[in-house]
Each structure stands twice: as structure tokens, then as C-alpha cells.
Amino acid sequence: MTQTDETPTSPETPGDLLPETRRALDHRLATAQATGRAPSVLAAVVRGGRTVWSAARGELPEGARPEDVQYRIGSLTKTFTALLVLRLREQGLLALDDRLGDHLPAPHGARATVAQLLTHTAGLAAEARGPWWERTPGALRPELTDVFGEAPQLHPHGLRFHYSNPGYALLGALVERLRGEPWSTVLRREVLEPLGLERTTALPAPPHAAGWAVHPHADARQPEPAVDTGRMAPAGQLWSTLGDLAAFAGFLLRGDDRVLGAKSLAAMREPAAPPEGPGWESCYGLGLQLLRREGRVLAGHSGSMPGFVACLWTSPEEDLAAVALANATSGPPVASLAAGLLELVARREPPLPPVWRPGPGADPELTALTGTWYWGTVPAGLRLLPGRALLLEPAGGGVRGSRFLPAADGTWTGIEGYYAGETLRVVRGASGAAEALDVGTFVFTRRPYDPGAPLPGGADPEGWR
Fold first, then answer.
1. Among 76, 264, 401, 465, whose Cα sits 20 to 30 Å from the Cα of 236?
2. Which chain regions cross the lipid bilayer (predicted)?
3. What's the whole-model pTM score?
């Protein structure tokens, strides 16, 4: 029997959007430009690794293709800096729990760990020493000793999230120290060139947009300065284009082993600072902002510099991303615009699930582990996933779920939620049969309080009555 995938009627090219979806996206962009009163707004949607819609509204350099015009991307630069640090980690040149001072003679923040700097939990001040660093030349802060003001440490290390631009200046200096080259040189060689981001640069290269401040109460504007921020560059210096950022979004969704693999990118998307309560809306990972909205978690980063705002969001589960750029200091809320464009496509054209097929020769011993297990009296389901991974699913209230990846010693390690980093171990009896699952010391048995299983505290000898 020949297997075929059923392919529904689709637009001209696989992945293209329906005309009514494109019209809705165009309307959303036009509304953002008009109500946000920005000289120009550009946006793109990426699906399946390619740009499926892009548009521009407003004034652009004469004769320039919209996707080639540079805009300043502000703190989106931080994600690029984080990639350089995580490459150092993958190459064994540092660990996330190393203290900054182990590698760099930093005047401030030396006791903070690399992870704390990446996740803004080092307790450092939010801004560099005055005057306003985003509008003044970096020559005013030539050395690391000049970056921080009189109160560099505002909170104890590791206790709370406090966004810190100078913290990323320290990470850029760390990259320079370990690579022996300027941050921008390392970035171009290790990230920009492999990904083909030829129009992403530290200084503007024509064609580029001018940055504007728009009067809040009149239809008037004045230009904003575009300075080289020097030591603060790793926190917000980069210029990029809609085309480059769409390609970068595709990388953030799928990874590229020449730069950073999918597994490391997935780790960047994990909340690193504890979210505030169960209803959290935003938090931070390893160089990525996380936003919970409309039932999905988006990962990316926003950015602003005088005259410019930018945002890039990805939704890995839907293989979708959106980018939005504008050239006004307090222009349209591009973070909401990018999220709204992504959600519009996801709602109107949800992806088809992949065709189900049986896996390649499931291990009978692992298959025998699947099914219902009980923590005390509460049921949970155990499923076998590809690659010998396991999924513990609550079958009712009271059980925490997680995926577990196989380890070399025959155990499994949790990768999310309460059990992240915890060990799942199969407890076998004298016959070799599985009697229980030990999940971080929580024991699951095949029957509620199974008297024949190694149950902590044992079962009552009279049993159920």
C-alpha cells in the first residue's frame, strides 16, 4: 500500500497566506502607523522558515527596497550578545554559574554569575552613568569603570529581576576578553556572517531610516541623534533591516548548528527569573524576553533607542514569528503590533498537524512502562515519546507533569516545570519487573498505595476497608 499525505487546496506557494489574511495584516500595519504617528512602520511575518508577508507604511529612503532599509533595533541587540555568550559556554570557555570576576576584572558586578547577567537578576542598576547614554557618545564612558554610576548594585545577586543595560555592557566586555577581539568583530564572524545577516551592523549603512521625535500634541517632528554608544554597544547599538530580522527570527525558531543549535535556543526560552505568580504575563530567559498572551508564550525581544522602536516575537509551537520596526522615539507600540500580527495569522490560518505515523520500532521494555501510575491515590499517565523520552501527564489534579529525556545511566532527567533537572528512575523488583517510578523521590505505583511496591512509609497492612 502506498502512503500519501493529504494536501488541502492552498495558495500559490506552500506557506503563502490567503488574500483575506494579507488584507487584515495590511490593515493592522496601516492602523499602527496612522495612530502611532510614526514617519514609517515596517513589519513581516515568518512561517515555515520564510517570510510569507511583509509591508511598509510611510516614508522610506528614495528608491530603497523596504526590506533593505536599516533601522536601529535597540535592545534586540541583547539577544545577539547572549548568543555570543552561550557560544562560549558551548565551547567550554565558561559556565553559566561562573562568576563574572572569574574571567573579567570588572569594577562592578564581578560577583554576579554569567547566568544572572544574562537574565537581569544580578541586581545591577538599570542605566549607565549619566548623561543619558542612548543620546550621548560612548567616548564619555571609555572604560568599564565609567559605565556605572554611584549606585551600581541595587539588589542582592539572584533574588529578583531588575533590567540592567550596563549588565549587558559587562557581557560584551566578557566576550571581548575571552575572544581577544572587539565585540562587533566577534559578532560579525560568529553570528551575522553564518546567518547571512549582511545588513546588520554596529553603525548605520545606507539606505537607513532617520530617527525622529514626534511632537506629542502637534503633527511636527525633530531629528534624534544617532550616536556610537561605545562600551554600551552590546546592550543596544545594532542597526538591522526587516529582511535580516525575518531571517534571524527563522534562526531563533529552528536553530543553526553553525551558530547555536535548537536545544540551546530552547533553553534560552525557559523562564530564568521566577515569574510573578501563576498569572504571569512577561518574564525573561537567557537573553530573550517571554510574553504570555492569547494562550501562547512568545519569545523574542523588544528594543528602543532615540528615534526608533523595534520588536521580534516567535511562537515555536506554531513555527511563526513577526517583526515590527518604526522610526519614532515614542512611536506605535511595536511589541503589541508584532504580537498581534503573529496572532492574526495563527488564528486565521492555524497550521495543520503533521500526519501521524507509527514510530520506528518502539522498545518493548519502555512500552511496558507506559500507562497509568499512581502517586498515592492520584493517577498520572506515562507516555513514550520519540528518542526514548518519557512524558508524565496528570490524569487528574494533584500531579505535576513534565517531559523527561534519557540519560546515559538508564535514568531520565526532567526538562520543564517542577521536575526540571530532577531524575526519573524505574524501580525494579527481584524478577526485573518495574514496580515503581521514583520521580525526584516521589514514588508512583501501578495501584494506589500498592502494598507490594517500595512505598515510602509502607501501606497499611489491613489494606483498603
1. 264
2. none
3. 0.87
